[in-house]
Design brief:
alpha+beta; single chain; 17% helix
Length: 373
């Protein structure tokens, strides 16, 4: 292999896929980038066997095609220290290559590309659809924080993509809260679904650029492939059946609170400072025209309460929640005004943007209450 490439462009390429390099792997070969030079295109691959990231870079000059596995840490550390300049990469024997720049060079080891495991994508049964890039980022951002860490029910550790003929809904839940994000921009000829683990979901959210327009998603029973620009993400899907989430979304909660989201969020944050650190319990006392948020920790003899004006239509109600769940949901919504709908102190509360908000039909969340004294 012999090529000349911009050091800055190469650094961008390796950093784009570096999130898939495992820090420690039972397969040491996976601690390397796979460089594959064909013509004037260098393809860079990184994988931890569950998640694979791949990107392509055009090189300035390629004289010898080839395929080698390059130590990820060594090449990244070197590239971070180089200013932008042409970099020559040239294999000199069966185990070493030289990186040459204007004023110096570095000799590094490489490993046979044959040792790198084969990356398996989707098969002929795969379903393919187009997803607007920013809608996908927004959907993941709106739901991924609600996923669980559940060894017994691995399906809860990912985002459920519920694809219908009219819309697609992304769902995440940890049994205490459930968040749904629905977009009509993506649909399929027939119903389909898959569960994307939270790790590749978070990585997708971070690497899809704001200038990307469309992500092509292809998935079968085992794997999913996401393609956008020059980047490909291949990941193992979570196997399992997702719960019937629509059955738990309240339909008849008649006690309705209209309130400014930011004001409500800031109040909860202030009051929760005095909540019990183990339970994070806070209480809402709802009365006509106002809500009082309170918390206390009897062990340290501390307490706090704050009353704010609001529009509340319903019966007087006292209900408790974990402040952490309330702040997570409120801080991950972007609406100005929101609506919380309650039935009683024991049933789940529904949170949605106010009807006047653009995202009123996109986002809904439910939070389970807790018993309060």
């Amino acid at each position: 292999m012999k090529l000349i490439i911009s050091s800055t462009e190469l650094l961008k390429g390796v950093m784009a896929v570096s999130k898939a390099v495992p820090s420690k792997s039972p397969l040491p070969i996976l601690e390397n980038f796979l460089f594959d030079l064909k013509g004037n295109v260098l393809e860079i691959t990184a994988s931890d066997s569950e998640l694979t990231l791949r990107t392509q870079i055009e090189v300035e000059n390629a004289t010898e095609e080839g395929k080698i596995a390059v130590p990820a840490k060594h090449i990244m550390d070197l590239l971070k220290e180089l200013p932008d300049q042409p970099l020559t990469i040239n294999t000199i024997n069966d185990s070493s290559f030289i990186c040459s720049w204007t004023s110096g060079e570095s000799t590094l080891p490489y490993f046979p590309a044959e040792d790198y495991p084969e990356i398996i994508g989707t098969d002929e049964t795969a379903t393919t659809l187009e997803f607007p890039a920013q809608s996908l980022v927004e959907g993941i951002s709106s739901t991924v924080y609600a996923t669980a860490d559940d060894e017994i029910r691995p399906a809860m550790n990912g985002i459920y993509f519920d694809i219908d003929t009219a819309s697609t809904t992304l769902v995440a839940s940890d049994s205490h809260k459930l968040i749904c994000y629905t977009t009509k921009d993506t649909k399929a000829a027939e119903k389909a679904s898959f569960i994307l683990h939270k790790k590749p979901a978070s990585i997708l959210k971070s690497i899809i650029g704001k200038d990307e327009e469309t992500v092509t998603i292809s998935f079968d029973a085992k794997n999913a492939v996401f393609k956008f620009g020059l980047t490909t993400v291949i990941c193992r899907l979570v196997v399992g059946k997702y719960p019937r989430y629509r059955d738990v979304i309240p339909q008849n909660n008649s006690n309705i609170l209209h309130i400014n989201r930011v004001q409500f969020l800031n109040t909860v944050r202030r009051v929760s400072v005095c909540s019990n650190k183990a339970s994070n319990h806070i209480k809402f006392d709802l009365r006509s025209g106002r809500i009082t948020v309170s918390a206390q920790d009897l062990g340290f003899s501390i307490a706090a309460h704050e009353t704010i004006d609001c529009q509340y239509d319903g019966e007087d109600l006292s209900i408790g929640f974990k402040s952490q769940f309330i702040t997570e949901v409120l801080s991950n919504m972007t609406c100005g005004e929101l609506v919380m709908k309650f039935l009683d102190s024991r049933k789940a509360a529904l949170i949605v943007p106010a009807e006047t908000e653009e995202e009123s039909e996109k986002i809904c969340g439910i939070i389970m209450p807790i018993m309060i004294s």
